[in-house]
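Closing statement on the methionine sulfoxide sub-project.
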Amino acid sequence: MYAFEPDPAQPKAELYRELSDAARAITSGERDGVANMANVAALLWQFVPQLNWAGFYRMVDGELVLGPFQGKAACIRIPLGQGVCGVAAQSRETQLVEDVHAFPGHIACDGASQSELVVPVLRDGQLIAVIDLDSPELARFDAEDAQGIEALAAAISRVI
Ligand code: SME
């Protein structure tokens, strides 16, 4: 059993430090990328409040393919450049979207989503996946959330 008990009232920087530490601990010594992504998706769900979806899309044969996640069943394949995830993957830049309905080409997998944060995961300069967080609240994510998830992406890029 893994007993991580995040305190949602603590400062975000501390919460994200704990999240990355937990992700490193839980993936340590495990080589199976699917198992590691599944556990990291569960940690995201446990640590980050006000989410309706959290998980991975993986780069497979030039397009994004759904990976382990928490939340409702989602779109399976996303072409590069399409939707928030596809733009993050193509640009290799974090996408912080305060209102998904104002984002051209946003792909609505769960109608509850109002804001979204998508962070590319790079390994040796190659895009291997994106981490996607959706929230039912407008403007749920800020620069501290983006930095926290970018730190997580760096922490797990060799084990997924
Ligand atoms: N909204 C995303 C699609 C993935 S779901 O949110 C899980 C997008 O526009 O890329």
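The radius of gyration is 14 Å. With this model delivered, the sub-project is considered complete and its resources will be redirected to Aim 3.
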